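Justification of resources, computational component.

The compute hours requested in this renewal are based largely on the per-chain cost of generating structure records like the one below. Each record pairs the submitted sequence with a full structure-token output. That output is archived, and it is also reused by downstream analysis tasks.
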Amino acid sequence: MIINTDKIKKIPFSAIILLILISVLLMSSKKMIMSSANYPYATKITSANAVVSASDVSDSKTYNEEISLPHTFKHLDARTPVTVTTHVSLKADDQIFIKTVYSPAKVYLDGDLIYEFGKAENYPAFMKDPATEQYMISTDGYTGDTELRIKYLSPVTRSSLTIYPPIYGAYKSLLFTLLNTYKWSFLIALLELCAGILFVFISILLLYYDKDVCKMIFHFGFFSFMVGMWSTGECNYTGVLVKNPTLLYLCAFIGLFSQIIPLLHFCKSAVGFKNPRPIIIVAEIITILNILACILQLSGTLAFSQSMYVFHIILPITLCFLTAYIAYEFVHNQNNRAKRLMIPVGILAVASCAEIINYFTKIMSSLSLLSQIGTIIFIVIMGNIMGLNISDMVKMKKENEKLVFDMNLLENSLAEQKKYNTMITRNEEITRKQRHDLRHQLVVIKELAGDTNPTLTEYLDSLIHSIPHAPKKYCENKAVNSIISHYGAICANESISLETKLNVPESEDSVLDNDLCLVFGNMIENAIEACRRLDNDGCFIRLSADIRYKTLIITMDNSFDGHFKIRDGKYLSSKRNDFGIGLSSIQSVAQKYGGDTEFVAKNGVFQSSLYFQIYTHSIK
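The structure output for this chain reads:
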């Protein structure tokens, strides 16, 4: 599967831009935000008479008195009756929007029951209280001044009851009023959900490209989706559109409790912590707490709305810890990927703390809007940062793949070179033995022929003298000597001056012998290739080797045409547009024995130098 890596690193930012464009189009659409000229605002009831049947209400002003809406009654016993009465001026086809929070309620118009919230059969047995319900109730048959009475029963799972202001008007006016009130919260929730689904889908597409990139994008998308789930469940406008309060209840709290887990895993992948263990431990602890909260809710022991207070403390603390740990990673380990995440994760931490403060102080009517704003800012910033992180990861992946390829190529080259060197040494030994045997056989034939045939004797003498003597001994090491002899003959045939001064002792280590042959063979072969590219007859190769303090030092100067290419400080092969395998092989052997190499081109002479350790136990 071939994928353009430049396009991949632009995917997150492009996805964010796409979502922003979609949101702008939705906000400007008249179908979504209806014109107030055509659909005037519905009427919101801001005050009512309230009667609390309990005798232990701490605020005596709320007992059978006028109250401003919204209003919260505190310190109530479970299922305390609270009756709210007001008057509304209804028109034909008007509807009334009423919201209840964890409390059963009955709605009456002029004493007639028209709707009942929180029926026991409408929510599962594991929930002690009904979920938050929002419903637009039809008022067919009622017009003019009408008494609206709502009888609440306080929740079992909390000691307070909040009365939200009813809103009445034409159906489209109600929709417009609600959407205009909750449009930002609703839009951000949709964007978070869409971003989550989009990034999870992108991660699936990249599954076979790179698992690390796929995992990072998946966790980012899952985090965005869980935040979107929470925001959607919390948004009042969603309750109007989705007629399943229990589903929204579960979505809101599961999203709230779980959102930090994929965020931790995302940061672990995106930052690449030197020590990711603290992040893993925190993620595991929160996962266990999530499972425990679900078990308690399903068993009816502790509702999500009660365990929520624990997570309201855990989430800001975790985000602050995450921000601090990312900053620590950057300062102590100079991790640039950590530097990129410090600000966006810090924004999340600040937004989470602000959301908790707003939840208890009620500064803003939308309890989760501050956290939503922080999250959407985080998503937008991370869209660009993820592109940079993916670029880094792709670059590292390419370098690793190239390194593996080069190593495999080098290993294959070394194996072939060792076979070639072994064959040269073996053939040299066979040829020397054959020359020795042939000379002795001709001498025996000459003795047997005697002096009876002068012509035959003269011919045999010429044959004996024409047999080459043993090759020149360049050094004590037989393997190296064979290699030098082989290439020395080539140099003699091609009029290349070869000067040698070699002190290479005999070795008992066959691996070392092979590596020495590889070094000398590649060096002389490269030098011969360089000389062949010259037209003049003054080509030369000067090779020397000596041992000092158990270190073999090899130097070689040879003629060359002065043309060479360097990339990233390395010489490119003259045979192909890539790094020279011969030089890489020499460098690999030097590094294997704790040494190094240097190659310098200067004034028409190519100078090669290297050194590496030769241990005493391998030398005779």
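The first strand starts at residue 43 and ends at 44. The mean pLDDT is 80.
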